[in-house]
Each structure stands twice: as C-alpha cells, then as structure tokens.
Amino acid sequence: MLLAAGCKDHTEPRSFSETLPVQAGLVRPVINEIMFDPLQKSDDGIPDQPEYVEIYNPGTTPVDLTGWYLSDRSNNKRYFAPTGGINTLGPGQYAVITPEKGGSVGSSRLVAYFRYLPGLADAIIFLDTAHSTLDLNNDGDFVRLLNQSNELVDSVNYTTLWHNPANKETQRISLEKFNPLMQSDSPLSWGSSTDATFGGTPGKANSIYIPRSRSEGMFLLSPNPFSPNGDMRDDVLKITVNLPADAYQLAVTVYDAMGAEVRRLASGTPAGPVALIIWDGCNNAGAPAPSGIYRITMNAAGSNGSRYSSTASATIAR
Fold first, then answer.
1. Structural domains in the chain?
2. Strand 261-271 vs strand 123-128: parallel, antiparallel, or unpaired?
3. Rg of the chain over all Cα atoms, to the nearest angstrom
4. DSSP readout, 170-187?
C-alpha cells in the first residue's frame, strides 16, 4: 500500500494518495463478503438474518459454477450450484450463497431480510437447500471455495479480530473486503460492514469498498455555505471523510466562533476508509444553530495505530 500522505498524527487538512496491494489479472471468482454471526431472534419482529458468503467475478468472461461448493475448517461441504440450474456468474456479478433447507429464493431468509436484493441485476442468489446453516463458527473459521474438480479457487481464514474494534457488538455485521482484488486470506483486506440498515451488503458493492488507486482530500465539506431553511436546497452539510484502507474510530464535532461545542456528529463511531456524515444545522439540543461560521473537527484512530486529524470551516447562511 503506497501513501503520498497519510502517515500518523496529521493536524491540518490534507490529501493523500493510495494504491492498494491487489492481485493483478485475476480471472477466477473471489470471496468478497462473509456473514458468520447473523442476528436471529424470535421476538424482535424482523426476519432472521441467514449466514452467507458472497463471491465476485472480477474477470471479463462468464464462469460456470455448476458443481462448485463451500467448505469450512471441519470440511462440511455446502453445494450450491446443482446440475441443470442457471449457474453462470457473469463479469462484475456477485453470487450470494446462503442456506435455506428445502426452500426457494423468493421465500428465503436472505431475501426477506435484505429486501433490496430482488431489484439488483448483478446479484445472483444460490441456495444450499440441503442445510439450514453454513456451520460457520462465530469465533473464526476457514472458508474455502472449490470448483467441480475439487480444486481450491479461493479461501479465507477469518477471525473475529478482523472486525473493527470500535464495534461494541459484531453480531449482524458482516466482514467485507476493501476491494475484491485484494488477497482474500489477509486481515489487511477486510473490515466490518458499515451498512447501518442491514449490517451487510450481499449482492452489491461493499460498504467499505475503495478503488485500487485514489487521490483524495481527507476532509471535505459540501455545500459550503449551506442553508438549512427547509426549502430543499442546500439544507444539509455533507461531511466526507476519506482515509487510507483500515478500520477506524471516528469523532466529528462542530464548534462555534467562541470555541463552544455546538453539535457532536460522531463520537467513537466505527467507520471504514470512507465515511459520509450529515449535519442538519441543529445543535445538540435539536435547535437550529444561528447563521455564522463554524469550525468542524475530525479525529480518526485506525486499528493499525494510525491517527488522523483535520479541521475545516463551514458557514450557515439562513
């Protein structure tokens, strides 16, 4: 990973450049997301999450998955693409493999919980209809993807330590890759999903996805000035935080011209390398802040020990 900026303890706004260590020229499917500790409660009024493994085809040609299967550390085999099915995974497509004993895609727990899935053209759902679980251990396991010839295609030896340590609870939160082309069996390639609604992103780009190469400003405010007056134009300030690939604990705070705290927007919040935070122009009590210039600070602590700080000004024009 190459950084032009982004070392430790920055105290002013700056940009950085990053090139991820990827596997060049990959044509085989890769493991891209794992849900091993789903939320399943009978009294919470929401559908149960199932376990799932997502794979992605980074190549330029379709791949026939007929006869492919997953296995774990105990060599439990989960066949998901039987002969006679529609088993082609096209370039740029995601395959989500989930257990649903005797069930169908339309009535599966996966579709019931991740209700956006039926509308995704690039998502293909494969069911292991012989089992109700993938038997993935919550404290860590070895996930292997094998083809019809029993050849190893990809593998991940995950542990719970791969989750963002800022998460107080990791149940319902998947592990996602920063980029599908990164080495699968490396903790540096993975982080916790930051999808607040579903806890994972099966069938679409990961919530912590970042491109192979990028040059970004670390702390961006837009629009600036903004006018939170309810006219549906520039009503909120979008605060974008861009950081090198890692898991972060994020703090973002708004201060007035006298240095008094106006709004705490994030305080120890788990975050990936890209975070979007919204300020509606109100203070901590929910009252509108008056017109004027405000100082906004960002502090991020990375799981690898890195720390980043930045400050920028935003103007409210009511």
1. 2-18+214-316 (2.60.40.4070), 30-209 (2.60.40.1260)
2. unpaired
3. 22
4. -TT--EEESSTTB-TT-G
Are 316 and 292 a contacting pair, CB within 8 Å?
A: yes
Report which DSSP code applies to 289. P
CB-based contact 185:158 (threshold 8 Å): no
Helix (H, G, I), strand (E, B) or coil at 3: strand
Per-residue pLDDT of the chain (318 residues; tens, 9 = 90+): 434 343 344 445 488 999 999 998 899 999 999 999 999 998 888 999 999 999 999 999 999 999 999 999 999 999 999 999 999 999 999 999 999 999 999 999 999 999 999 999 999 999 999 999 999 999 999 999 999 999 999 999 999 999 999 999 999 999 999 999 999 999 999 999 999 999 999 999 999 999 999 999 999 999 999 999 999 999 999 999 999 999 999 999 999 999 999 999 999 999 999 999 999 999 999 999 999 999 999 999 999 999 999 999 999 998
Instruction: Fill in the amino acid letter for 294.
Output: Y
